[in-house]
Amino acid sequence: MRKIDLRSDTVTQPTERMRELMRQAPVGDDVYQEDPTVNKLEAEAAALVGKEAALFVSSGTMGNLLALMSHTQPGEEVILEADSHIYCYEVGGISRIAGLIPRPITGLGGIFTSKQLKQALRPENIHYPRTTLLCLENTHNRSGGQVLPQDQVVELAEAARNAGLKLHLDGARIFNAAVASNTPVQILTAPFDSVMFCLSKGLAAPVGSILAGSTNFIARARKFRKMLGGGMRQAGILAAAGLESLDVMTKRLAEDHRRAERLAEGLSAVPGLKVANPVHTNIVMLDITCPELTAACLVSAWAEAGIITAANSKYGMRLVTHYQITDEDVEYVIEATRTIIQQMS
Ligand code: TLP
User: Which residue of 135, 164, 234, 278 shows the fewest CB atoms closer than 10 Å?
Assistant: First the structure.
């Protein structure tokens, strides 16, 4: 049976070329910084996002955690958006491991204003923790992959910097943001001291993310990575796929965006369904508008038709396009959904 997996772009399989490059990769012990393929990936990644240095890490979650630990001291406060991945989906590592106090601010489309930031910042007082870091996320996952408006990012960054804060960008899908806004990725990352981006999502590498920043910052992060058990030895096997992600897969993301747009257009024409957010990139947030039907019912009916998705609330679902989703798959999903909803209502 046909299998169309729309749960996430994390489900992408490595391409044949990646598998071949992985087989051929020269490797060494990366804890001694002697793996030539990892070193090459880190150098290319740092240059691409306009930072001095970079570190190859096992996951986006580890990259964000290392950034939190490397920019701060335990007991300090971090300002982030209330629907951010770091706050919602990283198992509370911000507090449990980094020892930080998250200060969530509710935004719109993934970002809050500099006025909201100024209101959240407290004057010096013996009772308060020190606030030392601001984190943003671009694209913003829970807002359906929306691209943050760069002028608002720049304004917020300036306000944060004036208040003495460091800035970290969770750019898990920053290349999607760059493609969708037709902006060089270095422009999007420029206001930040550090950026994390994922190789293992739309860029299709099997494993890994990059953390980039200043040379000193990356030296700190490297030590914390070792502390957390993330020193990966002959990791060039994995980095080889990451190099292919940067060279090739960053250049095809517009296709995923076009398919997400078509999916949103087709599904929003089905009675009883509504697309919850503007679709900027490869994520479609879908809501059910007829109370008799729940997301769980639709997810299981889809599964019978070979369409794999997940509910993220009683009436909400997230569908993500990626390089294994074709135009035919998108048309099939739209048609199958029309039939399913007709039968159910
Ligand atoms: N997001 C995953 C799930 O964890 C929800 C997904 O399927 O979208 N930042 C952002 C913005 C992310 O979306 C993710 C993964 C991460 C960080 C963490 O990356 P990994 O999964 O590599 O730890």
Answer: 164
Question: Quick one: average pLDDT of 77-86?
Answer: 98
Categorize the per-residue pLDDT at 345 as very low, low, confident or very high, splitting at 50, 70 and 90: confident
The single-letter code of the amino acid at 313 is S
Q: Is the CB of 93 under 6 A from ligand 1?
A: no
What is the three-class DSSP state of 198?
strand
Percent of the chain scored above 90 by pLDDT? 97
> Residues 146, 282: one domain?
no
**CA 249, 141, 340, 334 torsion: positive or negative?**
negative
Nearest CA owner, ligand 1 atom 3: 89
pLDDT confidence of residue 290: 87
Ligand 1 atom nearest to CA at 209 = 22
Q: Atom 17 in ligand 1: which residue has the minimum CA distance?
A: 60
3-state SS assignment for residue 334: helix
> Model's pTM, two decimal places?
0.97
Supply the range of the domain harboring residue 279. 4-9+252-344
Determine which residue's CA is closest to atom 4 belonging to ligand 1: 89
Final residue before a domain boundary, out of 229, 250, 271: 250
- Which whole number is the average pLDDT over 58-80? 98
Q: How far is the CA of 304 from the centre of ligand 1 (A)?
A: 27
Residues 6+ apart with CB under 8 A from 147: 138, 139, 176, 177, 180, 181, 280, 281
- Both 208 and 269 in one domain: the answer is no
41 and 158 share a domain? yes
Helix (H/G/I), strand (E/B), else coil: 55: strand
